[in-house]
């Protein structure tokens, strides 16, 4: 489970996917399979979560990695490059962005 903390030393990556309600379930299944079979087993992976909006037009993915280089190495693998080509067919766009936790509340 992701832990959101200003003092955490992990690399946070938030990826948003934009799609139609007709492809939301297909995309969610492809992402779930990618995490279960491949991404979660990569060096440096810490945790991740998938979130779907109620209109089923966006999926937000929150993931954490020990180092930014671990995330980038995973993206560059032949398997992930192939999976990303497959994922892209279900959505209009997706963009992974690396973030630092600036503040937390609660």
UniProtKB/TrEMBL annotation:
- Domain (ABM): give its ranges: 11-105
Q: Which GO terms describe its molecular function?
A: monooxygenase activity
Which keywords does the record carry? Monooxygenase, Oxidoreductase
Q: Could you tell me the superkingdom of the organism this chain comes from?
A: Bacteria
Which positions are tagged coiled coil? none
Q: Cytoplasm among the record's keywords?
A: no
- Answer yes or no on keyword ATP-binding: no
Q: What is this protein called?
A: Antibiotic biosynthesis monooxygenase
**Biological source species:** Ruegeria spongiae
Taxonomy of origin reads: Bacteria, Pseudomonadati, Pseudomonadota, Alphaproteobacteria, Rhodobacterales
């Amino acid at each position: 489970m992701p832990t959101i903390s200003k003092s955490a030393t992990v690399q946070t990556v938030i990826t948003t996917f934009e799609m139609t309600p007709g492809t939301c379930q297909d995309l969610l299944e492809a992402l779930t399979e990618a995490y279960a079979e491949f991404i979660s087993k990569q060096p440096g992976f810490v945790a991740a979560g998938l979130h779907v909006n109620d209109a089923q037009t966006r999926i937000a993915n929150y993931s954490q990695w020990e180092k930014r280089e671990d995330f980038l190495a995973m993206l560059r693998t032949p398997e992930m490059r192939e999976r990303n080509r497959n994922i892209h067919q279900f959505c209009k766009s997706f963009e992974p962005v690396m973030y630092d936790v600036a503040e937390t509340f609660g």
